[in-house]
Amino acid sequence: MEGVGCTGPQPSGCYAQFAYAFVWQAGVGSTDLPTLGRARDAVNQARAINDTGQVVGVSTAASGAQLAVLWQNGSVLSLGTLGGTSSTAADINNRGQVVGSSLLPLEICTPFCGGTK
Questions:
Q1: Which of the residues 2, 32, 42, 47 could staple to 38 if both were Cys, CB 3.0 to 4.6 A apart?
Q2: Over the stretch 66-91, which tens digit does the pLDDT of each residue have?
Q3: Which residues are registered as beta bridge partners of 43?
Q4: Residues with Cβ < 8 Å from 110, sequence gap 6 or more?
């Protein structure tokens, strides 16, 4: 059994000003997920995990931008944006296809769907 989540310094947890992403595994416990480079005073949220252990969510980059990310094999990969300033990943299937949303250059939010092979 596995699960993902985040915790923050306030009772609101994931919706606090800053949050820490983790994976929980039976018999192992919680393992923190790495950030995109920003110190831990920023958003780092795990949103979904698939059967192969790939995790998606959002992390704050060193620049301060909040970006959709994929965590796999102990590493974090930015999924970028569709030209805007921020994005988020909401779910991932067992084929590694990710769904989420991204701001466009005019700050219009649009859904996206992508794959990771």
A1: 42
A2: 999 999 998 999 999 988 889 999 99
A3: none
A4: 82, 101, 102, 103, 104
- Split at pLDDT 50, 70, 90, the class of 14 is very low
* 3-state SS track over the chain: CEEEEEECCCCCHHHCCCCEEEEEECCCEEEECCCEECCCCCCEEEEEECCCCCEEEEEEECCCCEEEEEEECCEEEEEECCCCCCEEEEEECCCCCEEEEEECCCCCEEEEEECCC
Structure tokens at 33: 């997920």
Residue-wise pLDDT tens digits, 22-70: 888 888 888 888 888 866 567 888 999 999 999 999 998 888 889 999 9
- What are the residue boundaries of the structural domains of the chain, listed by start? 2-114
